[in-house]
Amino acid sequence: xxxxxxxxxxxxxxxxDTPDHELDVxxxxxxINYMIDAGVDGLFFxxxxxxxxxxxxxxxxxxxxxxxxxxxxxxxxxxxxxDTETERVIEQGKRALALGADALVATAPFYALGGxxxxxxxxxxxxxxxxxPIFAYDIPVCVHTKLGWKMLAKLGAEGVLAGxxxxxxxxxxxxxxxxxxxxxxxxxxxLTGHEIVVDGAYLxxxxxxxxxxxxxxxxxxxxxxxxxxxxDWATVKAEQDKLNELSHIFDVTTGLTGYAGGVGAFKTALWxxxxxxxxxxxxxxxxxxxxxxxxxxxVLQDCGLL
Amino acid sequence: xxxxxxxxxxxxxxxxDTPDHELDVxxxxxxINYMIDAGVDGLFFxxxxxxxxxxxxxxxxxxxxxxxxxxxxxxxxxxxxxDTETERVIEQGKRALALGADALVATAPFYALGGxxxxxxxxxxxxxxxxxPIFAYDIPVCVHTKLGWKMLAKLGAEGVLAGxxxxxxxxxxxxxxxxxxxxxxxxxxxLTGHEIVVDGAYLxxxxxxxxxxxxxxxxxxxxxxxxxxxxDWATVKAEQDKLNELSHIFDVTTGLTGYAGGVGAFKTALWxxxxxxxxxxxxxxxxxxxxxxxxxxxVLQDCGLL
Amino acid sequence: xxxxxxxxxxxxxxxxDTPDHELDVxxxxxxINYMIDAGVDGLFFxxxxxxxxxxxxxxxxxxxxxxxxxxxxxxxxxxxxxDTETERVIEQGKRALALGADALVATAPFYALGGxxxxxxxxxxxxxxxxxPIFAYDIPVCVHTKLGWKMLAKLGAEGVLAGxxxxxxxxxxxxxxxxxxxxxxxxxxxLTGHEIVVDGAYLxxxxxxxxxxxxxxxxxxxxxxxxxxxxDWATVKAEQDKLNELSHIFDVTTGLTGYAGGVGAFKTALWxxxxxxxxxxxxxxxxxxxxxxxxxxxVLQDCGLL
Amino acid sequence: xxxxxxxxxxxxxxxxDTPDHELDVxxxxxxINYMIDAGVDGLFFxxxxxxxxxxxxxxxxxxxxxxxxxxxxxxxxxxxxxDTETERVIEQGKRALALGADALVATAPFYALGGxxxxxxxxxxxxxxxxxPIFAYDIPVCVHTKLGWKMLAKLGAEGVLAGxxxxxxxxxxxxxxxxxxxxxxxxxxxLTGHEIVVDGAYLxxxxxxxxxxxxxxxxxxxxxxxxxxxxDWATVKAEQDKLNELSHIFDVTTGLTGYAGGVGAFKTALWxxxxxxxxxxxxxxxxxxxxxxxxxxxVLQDCGLL
Lengths: 306, 306, 306, 306
Known about the structure:
Oligomer: homotetramer
Order of helices and strands of chain A: EHEHEHEHEHHEHEHEHHHH
CATH architecture of chain A: Alpha-Beta Barrel
Largest sheet of chain A: 8 strands, parallel
Helix content of chain A: 40-55%
CATH topology of chain A: TIM Barrel
Number of strands of chain A: 8
């Protein structure tokens, strides 16, 4: 698997909880099959929207174990090994590989204060310790460090990194990274996490996307990717426009911030669509209720998903 | 121990590493005894400067186990249970209590985006799950959330929190918290982490301090606390002034940011003073070398510590 | 005046507007006399709470002209020359001096992005162009640049700056500045804008304060300063405690942020106390109404000011 | 002019200074003609890179007067009326209109703290007071407020705003704004300031761009716009790729931040190309020298501009 290049649509998989906060395996299986049947090119487990930081190590292992079993080699399995600093991340990586992950996704260190020197050393340590393709996960909104495109390109050229999952919101940096990666012979697979402007990222040269919204509507993202591969930019844009209407599940609710409003919207939509058995959130986050659920139902109806 | 109020000087203990990144137990024992002999009132292990986020769970357990053994009930042992979200923090807390911690110190959740609703629910969940005094650790520079004084006071009055360790850098908020806590009958023990302006925090009404610099010079902080207890504010200020001269170990080095410059200065000073056998830092941070070491040596000499 | 050192209580004067947004001169005169009669040591016009950035140049001139006339040399008149970059600030300074200002108060440049090199050059240009004592106004919440204490001390020692008005919220930096200033022979007059923790700043060595709340209750701040001069720290703290109860005019209102809630509270209090004829705010800010006014009335009553 | 829709390439014009900081009119004339000859669709004076916040009111008037004279109705003249709060911005607008501006560009209020209520009221006040098309200038890096797309669309539909110049770096928000504007009948002209990813903004539906880099290479941006109008996205991307190579004038220098490195690069390039007579910067910013100039010369040579 480490030889094959990961590209195309690789959704970050949302994780269903039972009302008493156990992993809801039947719902998980339905969601995974829903996306694979729609034609996605890979699946990313234990990402930021995959409850990674809410899950104990035991739960993380359970998620990976079930994921590997359900996916059953139909698509590559990427696993987030999100933890604070190097030694802890390496441990997460070793466990994920032992359970069958095909590739690993790691952020910059967080919590302790550092700088670019520590970030670069961190990825080098991960590469030395973990025998698998490593994607750098650029998500400053969570880790409060932006990964510089020059460093990423250098680590790609040296074989330290296999790719980048860009959720930085910095399309300028991503554009520079695409151009530099091209000059270096394309060592990195560059995936955008910008589900709302995947079209622009494809035009910039992205090798694929990691759109959370593909949990709800994977077919649209698959069509968009195929259109991009064919150079049919009018269709790319039109598909993005349609998906963005669906994305209003993020802003029709009230009183919720961050994870509660974002992943909460995914879970509520999947619950209303019958893929999940509940919209339970991990502690300390509360599940959506009442008018917020109805607001999401209306968006799904308007988009033809109910 | 849960009945006794923690107050006075409670340094956050710096953790020594051997050159191959193992816990250096003899150095650890020297440092703990150095501070207890100087008269500190408690010790806080696995705080931000105690390598907590750099340590695997196994290493965290080792640190707590050795700390409890070495301290041997001479002073209360507080343990940081720093992790990303509720379930993971509860797990850290259970392990720390099983190993003999007297009190636990927990931050707001971090990495995932949330708001005050989630923060309050988080501390309530910790209190339900963990049978020990819990201190809220207010450290927005690391977790990017400021704990509101109204929420803290309310959780104190309800018995959810036993105290606050304030490293927020917001002396206004701390002052309001002190006054509100007093009105409520002083349910919270309020400790400041502001090692440079402990005097102002004492004047505001703090019950004690958690100064990292007390690893290097505990006697000064002990004298300051005794002067504060006696209402001798001229001495309080004079002791702070002297300690602040020592604190220039933070700004005489070059090319280092964050943890490398801060905890790195502590480790280098303790190494130069013969308390630590090396100034090794946890990966991915590099130890201080060359001119930076000499700059710290000079500060220690100027302050009479060498 | 440039020989005399400005120290003690120097309130930033709130500016009253008539309902049709003209300067309300009678209210202005009442407020100025109220504070001078209470014993303040100076007055700071056109500060952040003095509508400086809301005022056209013509209005600024009117404020300074009336201020100089009403104060009539009873106390020093400091004038804020707040504008974006060097040439504009110099112009503001020349006009203020022509109208009779005793000292000028200038921030770091803002809007355009720069760094410490530009900030230092900026203050040097102001000093060359303006024949008056210049106070650096450290207010990162408005200008998004923190003035470094090493730079400030250096500019003091070189005679470029006469003092600092610190509204940075960074008590550590202020403490270092106080100690460094002392070592250099005290070239700078260091005034704190932290109205809630003036006591801590006095203990740190501040030469005075610039408390907005002194518009409402100047006598308390005057008593606090006298106690600090006498080394009576118990009284200093007790006066601060009382003033902080009054400061809840900032947090009893709802639905207001920033200037609307802060300066709006001052104006509403002064209106309720009969010193201002209205609580009109400058465009685009709305005046407080209804329950917010009643909430402030209650705080004033509880504090014995109504 | 207020009937005609501004669209296409509208560069923000860089302003040349003589070595003694006067407006260098001959250089200014050369630059304006260089861009008009290249086929740009409008010119934006006194933008963030047009020294607006560095210029006294007198200088601003001189810039607008000369700009109107030189442009001589060949393209529309947009003028930035950047100032802190409403009354000051209105004054800037009145003067610009009196001197012949065709449209005005205004940011959110800055310096004083406010919120969305004040921002919306601010634009309504501007619209009432100024008889001209008003573009909202979304530049949070300078004013520290992001303009919400729902508010912008609403103000467009109500006729308060004529367009938006988006320099927010938030391509998600821009995408939502484009879609909402379309649903409302396209009341707003939406121009992107993202010179590095103009291609993505065009794909999103932008009506044009305001690229600073077009001062140096206007023809590339003109070709890109024509390709976008023709739906030839491969050419759009290819032109952007080429322009991005030129954009490395921003990152080949060392020791410069913000305005000094950004606008400094433009001025140095224009000087090397013979369009400007010097690369003088406004106080307190220093002009580029030595190796930085040579680094920019090399980029220009590599891109065939020297």
